[in-house]
Amino acid sequence: MGCPLIQKVTLAAFMLSGEAGIWWQGALQRMIVAGTQVNWENFKQLFLEKYFPRDVRHKKQVEFLELKQGENFVAEYITKFEDLVRFCPMYDDVGNEEDKCVKFVSGLRPEIKQVFNYQGSLTIMNW
Hints:
Pfam family, one: Retrotrans_gag
Protein name: Retrotransposon gag domain-containing protein
Domain Retrotransposon gag: 11-110
Keywords: Signal
Distance between the termini: 22 Å
Signal peptide: 1-20
Number of domains: 2
């Protein structure tokens, strides 16, 4: 989104409504009382613990790691890959683009993999 890190908490909190907004007000007060720094990493950790339990995240990570194209069209595989990669921080980092590509290609059907003549640096953006 291009939002400076320091403003992410403010923007995210602004977007919360209903029960989530009430939850954040309480969480913010507890952080202040405890002397916990109100920053993006702490916000993300609290938010994920509350609304996206660890066991669900782990299931999504396993689903990503086991993802194969199977009988799907490449476009469907790409959509599923992009949906699940965000649950695996080791692959969803700009610095790990080549590892991400290796994972992507490894999930393709063999006859489609043959189309690739992998040489040098590869990025998902080349697709």
